[in-house]
């Protein structure tokens, strides 16, 4: 292949930015275009649901520093709408086309909207994904609402509800599952975390579902649950997870669906027949790839550190400096929920057992270690992050589960539980 | 020379002026079993990576002190009733550097809570004044002992003022602190004579602190001991009397036995590197990076001991369960894979991750104090000493291998500005 001359990065989030930097660092000297759906330069998302909502920093302070020079062509404000691989062009929603000979797909995800669009448009109903979302929600919180209703007990839901309590605002969280975080951590650990949030005054309603949102004069006034209960609230935060932005790839002949776009172990995107396209790589939330630490199971990870590492890998790949090894760092993430810091290493998916290896859930500080078929596969720390590196090592080496032997602050004889994944 | 002798060489007083060649030999095996006269031996970690990893390994315990066993008195009432009770209390209320979570965390958090920003800032300003007064007192001298004249009295005054210990009682602490600091030396814990002496000392200092705490309850003042004695932390931690006595003893001993070495090692190193002394004199803003480099190059605490609660595979060896561990922080600080040209004193290093204050959950509580005390002392010495010359190089050293530093540091001068 001739030396690449035109690289296009679709997605101006963390992965897009880091991928573009890696392209340049690996020696790519052709034209470099970055396409972003939002009008903003790349910014950092984790602070949005924490520092920005708390009012500790203004939304624009999340802009990411970067190492790109003036030669970069920023195409911001119009999302990509189509991909023609034969012509080698990306089509934008405003009709323009951008030619490429190297393409990085980093379109990430968007917030899953409230299913009823009419109710979703009521004043006071928010989703939280972008900087503008955070700015609008912060403004609404500052106005001193009677009560904030959070719909969905995943990480974002937990962060928003606990933050409201920190701000002194009454907060109700409605989650149809058995506990908070049940899908990611299982209901056993989810119940422990739920108890901590209840202790901080979150009105937690698990096993309940919001059926419809009632407005008056175009403003949210209350929510009606399927069990007949009503929640008086003037703010509702829809925290129902994320949808991957793959629609623009329809008709491009790639192996892509709402679960992500598929890559091979190296990071090249696969076409519909399963062959890698050596001109296209993907990174970040949207990329589904075979993870070497998990027997090559295909996963798409919505983690900050993963976006950074995988984008750096993909950028080098596209610049023609293929890294030696397949991308496969141990997945890690963190979530700050009020004063509670939850961190994780590894993937809990498929766990058949969980054990508290240190600390005590009743004290609100512990490490949960997840096992599958007698091997450690993930560890989650709740206000005990200092112990996570040692547990991450158990996970990355696939150490036997449950772990043997004593450790500080460990109960004698480790008890294992059903993690409670439904 | 066989591996087994290296730990003995670390302890060997003859190597006190320069233990670093021994450490370099130890680093050839990142974790090695060393003979210490017991069947099990001591496992020594000597590289930056292995030390950092073991510091945050939950299978590594800080509860290394053997069970309390006070000397018998011959009085049956005392030996059969009072002694077991006192031993039991002692075991339950160890100082927190020798305790594991969760107890360690609660005690440490209470102390951290007392280290308020205002209090630390005020003491920082106070340190500059103390240094000025101490040097003014030697204004006409043609020779100073950096230890007796500055490096010892400064941190001692600071910790006494922070804790509200009357300055006139300080002389009592001198011998108490020296004695109790032996708890950090590996052989002292197995020596019955030292242990008996330590428990007598602990009783003496404990009695003094108990009385002082009662006084702080009756007449609370704006000091850390009054704060600890009278107030809970926001998380609701309030120490009982025995933990409070142990914790205040820990703080006072640490205040007596560590920063003195940082300041003295600092001046010694500067006198051996006159260009750095001159640079500091011209630019006091260099002090913070110079002190970080000192904490790497000549750390006051050379190593800490630990014990394994279960077997640990690391660096190609398996440390068995129940093993004595020695984390050789000062050797990790000279690890060439982390610090290029490690034996060179170079304050302009960037990104240093020295182990001078330990790491992880036992990271030095007093680190901010040590930093600003050393800064106050070294900048003033650089500015005010006229033509300083070492009288003896190497200087005489104190006994300790763990808490290592000169006993005296005599410096000839043409006066103090």
Biggest contact: A-B, 17 and 17 residues
Number of helices of chain B: 17
> How many strand units of chain B?
10
User: Which percent range describes the beta-strand content of chain B?
Assistant: 5-15%
Largest sheet of chain A: 6 strands, mixed
Helix content range of chain B: 40-55%
For the biggest sheet of chain B, the summary is: 5 strands, mixed
CATH class of chain B: Mainly Alpha
Using the coordinates above, name the CATH class of the largest domain in chain A.
Alpha Beta
Question: Unreliable segments of chain A (pLDDT under 50, ≥5 consecutive)?
Answer: none
Q: Given the structure, what is the number of helices of chain A? A: 8
Q: Quaternary arrangement of the chains shown? A: heterodimer
Arithmetic mean of pLDDT of chain B: 93
Topology:
The complex is a heterodimer of chains A (422) and B (417).
Chain A: E1 6-10, H1 14-25, E2 31-36, H2 51-54, E3 73-76, E4 80-84, E5 89-92, E6 97-99, E7 102-105, E8 109-111, H3 117-120, E9 125-127, H4 131-142, E10 148-151, H5 155-166, E11 171-175, H6 182-199, E12 203-206, E13 210-216, E14 219-225, E15 230-232, E16 235-238, E17 242-244, E18 256-257, E19 260-262, E20 268-270, E21 276-282, E22 287-291, E23 297-300, H7 304-318, E24 332-337, E25 340-346, E26 353-360, E27 365-372, E28 375-382, H8 388-396, E29 416-417
Parallel strand pairs in A: 1-2, 1-7, 2-3, 7-21, 9-16, 10-11, 10-16, 11-12, 19-22
Antiparallel strand pairs in A: 4-5, 5-6, 8-17, 13-14, 14-15, 18-19, 20-21, 22-23, 24-25, 25-28, 26-27, 26-29, 27-28
Helix pairs in contact in A: 1-7
Chain B: H1 6-11, H2 20-27, E1 31-34, E2 42-45, H3 48-55, E3 60-61, H4 76-92, H5 103-114, H6 117-136, E4 143-145, H7 146-151, H8 153-163, H9 170-180, H10 192-218, H11 224-230, H12 241-257, H13 259-272, H14 274-282, H15 287-297, E5 304-308, E6 312-314, E7 317-319, E8 324-327, H16 329-332, H17 367-384, E9 389-390, E10 410-412
Parallel strand pairs in B: 2-8
Antiparallel strand pairs in B: 1-2, 3-5, 4-10, 5-8, 6-7, 9-10
Helix pairs in contact in B: 6-8, 6-17, 8-12, 9-10, 9-12, 10-12, 13-17, 14-17, 15-17
């Amino acid at each position: 292949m001739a030396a690449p001359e035109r690289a296009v990065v679709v997605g101006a989030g963390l992965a897009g930015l880091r991928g573009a930097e890696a392209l340049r660092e690996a020696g790519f000297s052709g034209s470099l275009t970055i396409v972003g759906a939002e009008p903003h330069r790349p910014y950092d998302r984790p602070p949005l649901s924490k520092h920005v909502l708390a009012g500790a920093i203004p939304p624009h302070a999340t802009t990411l520093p970067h190492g790109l020079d003036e030669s970069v062509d920023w195409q911001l404000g119009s999302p990509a709408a189509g991909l023609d691989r034969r012509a080698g062009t990306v089509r934008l929603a405003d009709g323009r086309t951008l030619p490429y000979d190297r393409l990085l797909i980093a379109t990430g995800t968007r917030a899953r909207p409230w299913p009823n669009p009419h109710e979703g448009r009521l004043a006071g109903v928010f989703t939280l994904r972008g900087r503008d979302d955070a700015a609008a929600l912060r403004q609404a919180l500052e106005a001193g609402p009677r009560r904030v209703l959070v719909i969905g007990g995943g990480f974002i839901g937990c962060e928003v509800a606990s933050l409201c309590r920190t701000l002194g605002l009454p907060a109700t969280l409605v989650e149809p599952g058995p506990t908070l975080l049940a899908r990611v951590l299982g209901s056993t650990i989810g119940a422990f975390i739920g108890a901590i949030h209840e202790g901080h005054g979150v009105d937690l309603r698990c096993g309940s579902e919001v059926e419809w949102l009632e407005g008056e004069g175009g403003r949210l006034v209350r929510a009606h649950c399927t069990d007949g209960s009503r929640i008086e609230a003037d703010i509702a935060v829809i925290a129902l997870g994320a949808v991957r932005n793959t629609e623009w790839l329809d008709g491009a002949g790639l192996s892509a669906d709402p679960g992500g776009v598929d890559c091979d172990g190296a990071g090249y995107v696969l076409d519909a027949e399963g062959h890698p396209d050596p001109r296209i790589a993907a990174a970040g939330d949207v990329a589904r790839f075979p993870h070497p630490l998990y027997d090559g199971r295909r996963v798409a990870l919505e983690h900050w550190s993963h976006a950074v590492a995988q984008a750096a890998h993909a950028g080098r790949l596209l610049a023609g400096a293929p890294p030696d090894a397949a991308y496969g760092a141990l997945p890690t993430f963190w979530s700050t929920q009020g004063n509670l810091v939850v961190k994780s290493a590894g993937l809990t998916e498929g766990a058949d057992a969980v054990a508290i290896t240190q600390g005590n859930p009743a004290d609100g500080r512990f490490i949960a270690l997840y096992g599958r078929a007698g091997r450690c596969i993930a560890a989650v720390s709740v206000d005990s992050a200092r112990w996570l590196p040692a547990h991450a090592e158990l996970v990355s080496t696939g150490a036997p589960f449950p772990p043997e032997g004593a450790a500080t602050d460990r109960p004698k004889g480790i008890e294992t539980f059903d993690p409670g994944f439904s | 020379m066989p591996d087994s002798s290296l730990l003995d060489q670390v302890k060997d007083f003859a190597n006190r002026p320069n233990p670093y060649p021994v450490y370099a030999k130890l680093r050839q095996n990142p974790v090695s079993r060393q003979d210490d006269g017991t069947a099990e031996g001591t496992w020594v970690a000597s590289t930056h990576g292995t030390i950092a990893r073991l510091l945050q390994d939950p299978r590594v315990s800080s509860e290394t002190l053997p069970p309390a066993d006070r000397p018998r008195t011959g009085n049956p009432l005392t030996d059969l009733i009072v002694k077991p009770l006192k031993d039991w209390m002692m075991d339950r209320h160890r100082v927190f550097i020798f305790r594991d979570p969760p107890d360690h965390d609660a005690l440490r958090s209470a102390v951290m809570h007392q280290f308020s920003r205002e209090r630390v800032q005020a003491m920082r300003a106070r340190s500059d004044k103390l240094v000025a007064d101490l040097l003014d007192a030697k204004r006409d001298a043609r020779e100073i002992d950096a230890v007796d004249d500055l490096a010892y009295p400064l941190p001692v005054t600071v910790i006494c003022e922070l804790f509200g210990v009357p300055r006139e009682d300080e002389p009592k602490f001198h011998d108490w602190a020296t004695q109790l600091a032996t708890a950090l030396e590996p052989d002292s814990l197995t020596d019955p004579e030292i242990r008996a002496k330590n428990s007598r000392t602990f009783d003496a200092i404990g009695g003094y602190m108990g009385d002082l705490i009662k006084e702080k309850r009756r007449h609370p003042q704006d000091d850390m001991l009054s704060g600890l004695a009278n107030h809970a932390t926001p998380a609701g931690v309030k120490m009982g009397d025995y933990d409070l006595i142990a914790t205040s003893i820990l703080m006072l001993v640490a205040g007596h036995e560590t920063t003195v070495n940082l300041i003295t090692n600092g001046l010694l190193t500067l006198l051996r590197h006159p260009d750095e002394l001159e640079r500091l004199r011209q630019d006091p803003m260099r002090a913070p990076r110079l002190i970080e480099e000192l904490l790497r190059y000549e750390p006051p605490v050379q190593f800490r001991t630990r014990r394994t609660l279960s077997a640990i595979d690391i660096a190609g060896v398996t440390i068995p369960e129940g093993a004595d561990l020695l984390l050789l922080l000062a050797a990790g600080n000279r690890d060439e894979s982390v610090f290029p040209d490690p034996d060179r004193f170079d304050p302009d290093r960037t990104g240093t991750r020295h182990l001078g204050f330990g790491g992880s959950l036992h990271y030095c509580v007093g680190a901010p104090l040590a930093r600003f005390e050393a800064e106050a002392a070294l900048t003033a010495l650089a500015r005010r000493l006229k033509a300083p010359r070492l009288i003896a190089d190497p200087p005489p050293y104190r006994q300790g291998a763990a808490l290592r530093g000169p006993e005296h540091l005599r410096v000839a001068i043409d006066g103090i500005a």
